[in-house]
Amino acid sequence: MVSKLIILTFILVGGSLGYNLFPEMIDNFDIIPRWLLNPIVGMGIGAGVFYMLSFLAVRPIEKGIKKIEKSFSRFSVAYLMFGSLGAIIGLILSVLISIILGALNMIIISDVVPLILTVVLASLGFQLGTSRREEIRRLFSPKTEKTENEDVLERKSGDSFRKYKVLDTSAIIDGRILDVVKTGFLEGSFVVSHYVLKELQYIADSSDSLKRVRGRRGLDILNALQKEEGISLEMDDSDIPEAEEVDLKLVHLSKKLDGMIVTNDYNLNKVAEFQNVPVLNINQLANAVKPVVIPGEEMQVMIVKNGTERAQGVAYLDDGTMVVVEEGRHHMNDRVDVVVTSSLQTNAGRMIFAKLLNDQKAIDDRKDQA
């Protein structure tokens, strides 16, 4: 279909040129028959010549069209629409200025400057339309109760407040962000970069079954966040050429939006903190809300594996906290009563050290007898 349109365009252009130019070109030659001076004859000759030339130009033009289509397919409809609107406004301004400059009737100012202004203003309009599309969209959106509440959120109550929360791939795949958001502890708008969406899609299409499940889980979490009432989830499709890795792109995006990064990635956490970008770490939140245990507290756990030291056994609480039980290796896969001796907070989480309750009671009895 595209090739036929290209050939038809060549025929129309050739016919138009032949109709208007061919009679004048051959009018100075006396040996040319007079019937060739007819514009209709010239239109036929021009159309025939350009029809032959079209077969040489079809393939290169098709390749160029495909490249243009591929480059435009990377952008969203909103990006192209707001960019085109900005470019049109820039062209209108250039026409108005060109009318004023043309009235001056000066050689360079009236002829060259309008062409430069047309290119510059159209380019600036396109860039402003794409970079400020969210602000333009809010200007024309109706003032509902929800938008009024969002305006209240934009009033920064302090340096620690950030309206935009940029979601990382690890936080989305983890899934706990959905539960945290439902509780209402996080306010503002959640932003998902198109780089994160591409990374999730790549993981979901992986040949590794485990990665594929993780990627699909992340996409399901995004859909659930989008459908959840009272949650503002926005897609950001702006290009961030400052870095190649997705983590660094998210850092630059957070700086651009004056927002915070929501992640589970320890390395991204450190990189963002180094660049003075606030971070909300879901793992740190989970560790902070875990129940506090004190030495002497009793609990019942199941020994599931051996510890690193001699005769140690390892158990886990319901929230994933590791419990290291002395002499617990002899009670593998048994539920035992233990007493807490100490706890240790690390970057990976909280560890609890305990002894078997029977052993502790025996020690206490010996102390009483002594």
Description:
The chain has 370 residues and is α/β, with parallel strands linked by helices. It folds into four domains: 1-73, no CATH class; 78-141; 158-288, 3-Layer(aba) Sandwich (Rossmann fold), CATH 3.40.50; 298-369, OB fold (Dihydrolipoamide Acetyltransferase, E2P) (Beta Barrel). Helices cover 58% and strands 15% of the residues. The strands form two sheets. Strands 6-10-11-9-8-7 form a six-stranded mixed sheet. A five-stranded parallel sheet has the order 3-2-1-4-5. The chain is elongated. It holds the Pfam family PIN. Residues 292-358 form the TRAM domain.
Task: Report the end-to-end length measured between terminal Cα atoms.
Answer: 100 Å
The major sheet is characterized as:
6 strands, mixed
Label the CATH architecture of the largest domain.
3-Layer(aba) Sandwich
Kindly state the number of beta strands: 11
CATH level 3 topology of the largest domain: Rossmann fold
- The level 1 CATH classification of the largest domain is Alpha Beta
Helix content: 55-70%
The structural domain count equals 4
GO molecular function: hydrolase activity; nuclease activity
Domain TRAM: 292-358
Pfam families: PIN
Cofactor: Mg(2+)
